Predict the 3D structure of the following.
Amino acid sequence: MSPADEQAHGTASTPGARGGPPRRTSRQWPLALWLWVLWIVLWGSVSPVVLVGGAVVALLVVVLFPLPSIARRARLHPLWLLLLPAHLLVGLVGSAVAVALEAVRRGPRVRAAVLEVPLRSESDLMIAATANMASLTPGTLVLEIDRDRRRLYVHALPARDAREVDRRRGEVATAERWVVRTIGPAEMRKDPNRRERGYGGEGERR
Amino acid sequence: MNGLVQTALEAATAVLLLCGAVFCLLGGVGLVRFPDTVTRLQAAAKAQNLGLLLILIGAALRVPLPYAGLLLLIAVFQLITVPVLGQIVGRIAYRTGAVERHTLTVDELAERLAPPDAPDAGESGGGRGRGT
């Protein structure tokens, strides 16, 4: 076991600390690449100084401040990643139109609901991504994330009757399905009912 | 040819900016007309958010490339941060009672937060009393 692993196990036992040991530097190249692109976009030029300076800064940040491995089991699926922006756009427009209609037609008489939605995901990354997706796309806003019981509590906006409530629930499930498709581990992608397992082993505390 | 592309870009920008402005307006209507913090948050997180995105994209089509990248970066960070903000504000609003309970048809979080021996912690169905 490397010193880095031991250190991480030491912190994992303290309450609140989650995530595994820090990633090895060689596994952090996507983060370095992202930082580099960010640097270039912020400078707004591709002169050699910016390119080299950005690469140096990105590498330094990655080496000096290693992040815990949140994405140990995540696998990126490029095809779905390419489709994701289109899905996001459709969802954004759809939910914005729905909320706007509700604001104009009903206003103070709007009917909403707070729903409990069980998740299949277990890892921090997947739950965070699902919560983010659910807040962006359908007419739902995540109010509360119950990390240990894997539940999202969402505020669903047009929810006048049981049928609409069920539809909003389905929309959160759809958001999670997209997250699983894009970054989920293989066994979850194959089986639509499979829950994510064996992540960190702190599942059902409290 | 170049002129045609230019005209098409201008038209696209005009449409995007106008649509963005309309969604921002509708988000404002939501802020005024919705009854409580969380529903207002929805108006800001959905309609207003889309309005801002459309305006950013529309502007990005017309400015030099380096600035366009910057605008798209703003859009990306907007998409990442708005749900986080919504969740934090929504959570606090819910827990401090800034939610009009009578607007909710179902409230499953209240059942969860209620102490286990509370009388109204049973099955959902009708949820909280129907106000108005």
User: Anything to note?
Assistant: DSSP finds four helices and one strand in chain B. The CA atoms of residues 37 and 93 of chain B lie 7 Å apart. The mean pLDDT of chain B is 80.
